[in-house]
């Protein structure tokens, strides 16, 4: 068993007795676990010594919600709300399946950027229509395994037609265009659960770092029997029930129109609001929703940057935290964020909350944001017993940052400077499961230059093909624009929603 001793470092544990108070000391790693933390741990025989002087050691960051399928669309779109953006990033009229090699490289690129940015755990809501295929899912797992990152990976599902999952969909879209959207019979609840059981059997705890999670896309996109079957399986395997809820005002209107209640209330009434559910976004929640979420002990993956770029709104973070909702931070996909950097999300999440009202006592603290990026994120993945903080017995998932960098000069407050000043440039070393996967800013398992060169060579043909897909789907744009305008203009019950006030 390998032993590593990090000596004389500044340690930010984010858990245990020390919490978010930095202290000086040593950290001993035996195999893949933290064996001891404290002052002067001696010199264990055979251990590799790492000099921690002038270095900060802290838990690896957690990306609580992302989509690897968007990785090749960095910087491609702007000034599009979610309902219009989906037409291009997740087109209704799809092209051929991405070749396996590009599927692998797309996933690997996300893992590479994540690790170099200090992310040691990500939750990938992988979506690969039109079918669920174990071989293709295996390709995604292989990329994460090769990179050395910890990951929860889903195979997201929906079984309600897109026009039936959005307010005013059928009445707005002309019949001749609706006829072009005949996708055949949707997957059944039994069929999807059979697939998920196979995925769990094949990939659960692969390499000690990789897990499959259950991810019905959203309550308005999935039938109740599918949602309930997914929840039952997630509980059996103790994996997250990961879903999108109330990201936009259109979705808030959709819930009221279809069910006569908010989508949070709808989940609650189905028995799906509990400690095992992770809700991505949660922007358009009202006070009743927040109370139910807090009572259930559920988690929210807060995507501050993506919510701003897609015009979704500002999630009511203070009220969610005060209600007892566990918060993690997500980038969302690279296409709606344009980076995989959680440091960017931390800074944005902290700053934007200060614009939600004049009561400065209710603005979020840097300490709260950093907790969301570490232990809170691990909670959303149901992995808080393994990772998210530096505590004896937990897995050795950590990052080391230089404290002599610009971001920490002068050094006033480590936590605040991590949230407001750092962007990942100070990262020197990243460790997952006790293995150093980034050293002096370079990946140890991957030939970065070769991977990036191969991707650059493949992109002209791929993006030209995608441009043709975009052109085919642009015929739907005026109608989804009208759907968006109609829904966002509706006032019925909307004054109750936090999103209207930030």
From TrEMBL:
Gene3D superfamilies: Metal-dependent hydrolases (3.20.20.140), Urease, subunit C, domain 1 (2.30.40.10). The keyword Lipid metabolism does not apply. GO terms for molecular function: hydrolase activity, acting on carbon-nitrogen (but not peptide) bonds. Keywords: Hydrolase. InterPro entries: Amidohydro-rel, Metal-dep_hydrolase_composite, Metal_Hydrolase, MTA/SAH_deaminase. Residues 56-437 form the Amidohydrolase-related domain. The keyword Iron does not apply. It holds the Pfam family Amidohydro_1. Belongs to the metallo-dependent hydrolases superfamily. ATZ/TRZ family. This is Amidohydrolase. It comes from Labrys okinawensis.
């Amino acid at each position: 068993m390998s032993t590593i001793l990090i000596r004389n470092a500044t340690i930010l544990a984010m858990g245990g007795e020390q919490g978010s108070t930095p202290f000086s000391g040593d950290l001993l790693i035996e195999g893949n676990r933290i064996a001891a933390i404290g002052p002067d741990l001696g010199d264990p025989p055979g251990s590799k010594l790492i000099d921690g002087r002038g270095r900060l050691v802290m838990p690896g960051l957690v990306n609580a919600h992302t989509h690897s399928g968007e990785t090749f669309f960095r910087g491609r779109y702007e000034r599009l709300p979610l309902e219009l953006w989906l037409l291009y990033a997740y087109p209704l009229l799809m092209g051929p399946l991405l070749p396996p090699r590009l599927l692998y490289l797309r996933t690997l690129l996300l893992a590479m950027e994540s690790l170099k940015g200090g992310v040691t755990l990500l939750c990938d809501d992988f979506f690969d229509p039109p079918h669920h295929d174990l071989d293709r899912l295996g390709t995604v797992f292989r990329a994460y395994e090769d990179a050395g990152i910890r990951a929860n990976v889903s195979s997201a599902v929906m079984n309600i037609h897109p026009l039936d999952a959005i307010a005013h969909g059928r009445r707005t879209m002309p019949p001749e265009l609706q006829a072009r959207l005949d996708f055949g019979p949707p997957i059944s609840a039994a069929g999807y659960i059979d697939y998920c059981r196979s995925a769990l059997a094949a990939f659960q705890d692969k390499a000690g770092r990789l897990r499959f999670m259950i991810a019905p896309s959203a309550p308005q996109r999935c039938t109740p029997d599918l949602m309930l079957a997914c929840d039952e399986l997630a509980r059996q395997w103790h994996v997250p029930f990961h879903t999108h809820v109330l990201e936009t005002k259109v979705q808030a209107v959709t819930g009221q129109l279809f069910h006569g209640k908010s989508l949070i209330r709808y989940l609650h009434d189905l028995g799906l609001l509990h400690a095992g559910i992770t809700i991505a976004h949660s922007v358009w929640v009202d006070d009743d929703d927040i109370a139910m979420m807090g009572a259930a002990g559920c988690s929210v993956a807060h995507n501050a940057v993506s919510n701003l770029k897609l015009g979704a709104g500002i999630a009511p973070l203070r009220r969610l935290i005060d209600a007892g909702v566990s918060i993690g931070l997500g980038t969302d996909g690279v296409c709606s964020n344009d980076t995989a950097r959680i440091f960017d999300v931390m800074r944005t999440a902290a700053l934007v909350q200060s614009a939600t009202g004049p009561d400065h006592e209710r603005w979020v603290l840097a300490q709260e944001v950093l907790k969301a990026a570490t232990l809170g994120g691990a909670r959303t993945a149901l992995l808080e017993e393994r990772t998210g903080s530096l505590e004896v017995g937990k897995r050795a998932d950590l990052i080391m940052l230089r404290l002599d960098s610009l971001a920490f000069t002068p050094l006033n407050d480590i936590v605040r400077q991590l949230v407001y000043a750092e962007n990942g440039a100070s990262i020197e070393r990243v460790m997952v499961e006790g293995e150093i996967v980034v050293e002096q800013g370079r990946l140890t398992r991957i030939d970065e230059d070769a991977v990036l060169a191969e991707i650059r060579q493949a992109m002209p043909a791929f993006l030209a093909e995608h441009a043709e897909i975009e052109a085919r789907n642009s015929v739907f744009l005026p109608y989804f624009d009208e759907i968006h305008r109609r829904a966002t203009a509706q006032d019925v019950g909307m004054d109750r929603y936090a999103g209207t006030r930030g």
